[in-house]
Amino acid sequence: MHATIVTLPGDGIGPEVIAEGARVLRAVAARWGHSFSFEEALMGGCAIDAAGDPLPDETLAACERADAVLLGAVGGPQWSDPTAPVRPEQGLLRLRGHFDLFANLRPVRAYPALARHTPLRADLLDGVDMLFVRELTSGIYFGQRQEQGDGDDAWDTMYYSVPQVARVARVAFAAARGRRGQVTSVDKANVLAAMRLWRRTVSGVAADYPDVTLEHALVDACAMHLLRNPARFDVLLAGNMFGDILSDEASVLAGSLGMLPSASLGTGTFGVYEPIHGSAPDIAGQGLANPTATILSAALLLRHSLGLEAEARAVETAVEAALDAGARTADIAAAPGEAISTSAFTDRVLDGLA
Ligand code: IPM
Ligand code: MG
After folding, report:
1. Strand partners, 238
2. Atom of ligand 1 nearest to the CA of 73
3. How far does the centroid of ligand 1 lie from the alpha carbon of residue 159, in Å?
4. Annotated catalytic residue within 126, 220, 282, 351
5. Among 26, 245, 256, 342, which residue's beta carbon has the most beta carbons within 10 A?
6. Statement: the pTM of the whole predicted model exceeds 0.90
7. Fold entry, domain 119-147+154-254
8. Where along the chain do the CATH 3.40.718.10 domains lie?
9. Is the CB of 244 under 6 A from ligand 1?
């Protein structure tokens, strides 16, 4: 098949990990006889420097022409002045909003080969395999806000409407059907009105999925259960902010933030695929970054935007085989001498694809 893929490397380690993700996609194209054309565009801090805008019009236009977008990470200390009028993260939020990418999928698995690397007891990690479905274009991230610059008050609004909750809930229930048939909906219904609407709406949608079990969990208790008994979770459905926080917490189960991919989807097949980690400016440009999250994001791109399930699985299997064979970047190495570089790690993944 032919597909057009836009890469948005962004800032910090973004360019390094995107280079590896693109290498994997090229290898997939060569092995399975597909033709992928790549176009690179500016986004984030580098786009502020070059064009004064974290999401320039040309970047948006390139994304509009594409079948899918592979994005690195944005941000860095040089753009993080809290009083600055433009910030790299605004580009990311605008991109998600522009394409109405309301469903953010974040699969989390524990890799037996990395069990030693987590601070949790290995027996707790047995069978950990969950999927976060995070609402991505509403909630407190997109609600009305008032920012007073250096004034003495500021506020943000957590807003949800029934259609907004219902459509992301449907994504979670549909995903649960192809998994273990269980949805945990995360909220703070004991305090927040928007979260009471969330709970009521999710319960209503559940009626259309009688074969799926629904439980509601308050976000604070859920944060605790995620570490006490992670294997009991199947699909976790959460609003924008709680999903952001809990998925970083859950990355501990996978061994490193460098392991977790994501897919941001709307109603069609177009999607934006990105590692959940940030731009890690402290390790940028040194070949230390773990490309796994980006490579697994590329696998999600193959699956969800291009419909190439066998190819997606082959990439995921190759990552697992590389880990099983002892390939380790610095963040998942037991000893400093064990670590290999970002591109050497990708070489090991590519060995498994050949
Ligand atoms: C994420 C990130 C972003 C978010 C930031 C960079 C705006 O943390 O994708 O998880 O909060 O959504
Ligand atoms: Mg985050």
Report:
1. 134
2. 6
3. 18
4. 220
5. 342
6. yes
7. Isopropylmalate Dehydrogenase (3.40.718)
8. 1-101+260-354, 119-147+154-254
9. yes
